[in-house]
Amino acid sequence: MDEASGPKEGNVVLAILVGAPGSGKSTFCEEVMRSSTRPWLRVCQDTIGNGKAGSKAQCLNSAAKALKDGKSVFIDRCNLVKEQRSEFIKLGVGPEIDVHAVVLDLPAKLCISRSVKRSGHEGNLQGGKAAAVVNRMLQNKELPKLSEGFNRITFCQSESDVKDAVKTYGTLGPLDNLPHGCFGQKNPDSKIQVGIMKFLKKTTVPVDTASREKGIGNSTSQIPGKNDSCCKDIENNSSIPNDTKLESEKVEGRAIDYAGSYANQVSLDDTLTLAFPSISTADFQFNHEKAADIIVEKVAEFSNKFENARLVLVDLTHKSKILALVKTKVAEKNIDTRKFFTHVGDITRLYSTGGLRCNVIANAANWRLKPGGGGVNAAIFNAAGPELESATKEKVKSLSPGNAVVVPLPSSSPLFTREGVTHVIHVLGPNMNPQRPNCLNNDYNKGCKILQDAYTSLFEGFVSIVRNQAEKPVENNVNLERKSLEFQDQSEGCSRNNVTNTDQKSKRDADHGSEKNKKYKGAQDGSELTFTDSRDQKVDSEHRRNDGGISKVWGSWAQALHQIAMHPEKHKDDLLEISEDVVVLNDMFPKAKKHLLVLARTRGLDCLADIQNEHLEILKKLHAVGLKWAKKFLNENASLVFRLGYHSAPSMRQLHLHVISQDFESKHLKNKKHWNSFNTAFFRDSVDVIDDISNHGKATLKDDDKLLSMELRCNKCRSAHPNIPRLKLHISNCQSPFPSYLLQNGRLVSASEDTL
DNA sequence: GTTCTAGAAC
DNA sequence: GTTCTAGAAC
Q1: Which residue is nearest to nucleotide B1 (CA to C1')?
Q2: Confidence at residue A119, expressed as pLDDT on a 0 to 100 scale
Q3: Are residues A164 and A246 in the same domain?
Q4: Which of A67, A220, A329, A631 is 20 to 30 A distant from A513 in Cα terms?
Q5: How far is CA A16 from the centre of its chain?
Q6: Distance A359 CA to B6 C1' (A)
Q7: Is A674 among the residues known to form the active site?
Q8: Are residues A224 and A289 in the same domain?
Q9: How confident is the model at residue A236 (pLDDT cuts 50, 70, 90)?
Q10: How many independent structural domains does chain A possess?
């Protein structure tokens, strides 16, 4: 504790609150202001924008003005990181201003439960995401130090500490000053960090090994039990109020306490888990052998798409045939058993009775998304209470086979509170039971496709949750909101694609600017589409399939090629060739003298990521047609050189082969992304894609954004150029031969080859 | 995918 | 002044 230095008379106070969402910053300010006799201004980034998201600059201005007017100021934003505080501290430079920090360093659990509960709060941090966000923020927290420029720091680590601080500030009259120095801190920073690291190492490792060892060999997986209970014990300790003064023993205790809450985040946050039942194999009587193949195939496809997440196939009994089949098949594949394993247990009680923490569970739903029936559907609706029914109903009324819908579970649901389930994903698989609607009469061609789609939708729904939770730590309230918006965007995309993500209703209701509402509108529109288009029932699930992980969202502008491929007769005038399985057209914005697109007409084949073994023929067909046109152009102009290939991550939906001359002489080639999309590994040569599929059954993608923002290099001599005009100038004159890589395997098509 | 805009960077 | 970037809108 620092020695108090001599306070001056009646300084204005600039009090910077430090605390996670839900730590009680706003309440603190309000309570102080209610009883205080000195003029205070609370500067809150959430409210300063008058309905819109506020900016840090607005806060700074507002605070500066108030200080100038002699008012004391509360900076009511999270300020968990030193950098976020620094500019506010600068406002307090000068002898008449005391810069204070009030640190609301309450248990993460408390902040989370408050954040989850609140609905009308200005910060608009909502529901299940709140937990993840608070955790993320706390992970990056840097407790303030006097050296940052504070005169006084008050640490509150319990609610009674907060009460004391309210009293201290509430009774601070206009002529009073508070002593300088640090107050209330019970745990020096460095020790906590060591404690955390030790603790994390101890706890995370067993999680992994347990699942690796037991996941496959033993049908009853027992994963987080040990360390979770360990965390729980420690948390219980931490809830004992500790008001005693600093002693070395207490410091240690406190350190473990912190470590406990951090470790808890690891199991809760870092290993997101989807538990799912086998779809369609029970009441829908789908062939188990075939279903097991599909499960393993889809798990293999998705399991390497995420780092800290895992999939768990759950069935009630050790005798489960489908579990046995999947276990056998999965053992033959090279699937990371930390990412996928089977588990015997009740899907509605995985945590409470099995110790398996699954924040997402899948429901084998019926098409009306109604409770009842039997099996998993009845069990989940029962266990989740009416909350799930209403949350589901709020967004969608029905589900067609092969689709899934993500429903965030209201925090009041028993499944949420007891089992830690934050999302339920309803999935509807194909039905082979003549007693049930939409029976496929043993048509396993259709059935397998639908079941594949169902798992794709399910896993993509999960991936969208994982992705969202894996967002980088947020920096302040503004960013926090942006992240939420991004998530809404994502869910919009999902809903358009039948993986509907019902976001929290209260978010919409909260008066928070038009921007958000506009976006939400989009989401609603999208979800309407989902269930009205009966003729193209499968379009939605199919056009979403991409690299298997990230839900690819196709904007409205990205649909043009798809429309052409589906209905070429409507665009006859713009097309060079129409056949049963391909369409050829000039690129609307050619990036070279000659630039064609050869579209696959296969429904659901949107990009390279969608390609599987079965598409080899269409790839060859696209290549052959592209080659034919290239040669045709070469006949007209022998100086051209063509390259045929695909973009790793196309912007336009519907698989299209680019046939492009290598002059890149075009006014439409305007930016780095244009150039790099044709001249880096992002561009996948058609011949290589065909090899990939022949050899590995899937296409290699190089869809890193870095490739598209790489330095501009000549496609012949590889020299670098500072900007597009200079590059264009260079390539128009470069006489170098093409790099040898391109000269191999027929990657380039030129007149000389044509004559062979 | 494109266009437009504003602001930053050079 | 030009180029780049990011965001929004389409």
Answers
A1: A651
A2: 44
A3: no
A4: A67
A5: 31
A6: 43
A7: no
A8: no
A9: very low
A10: 4
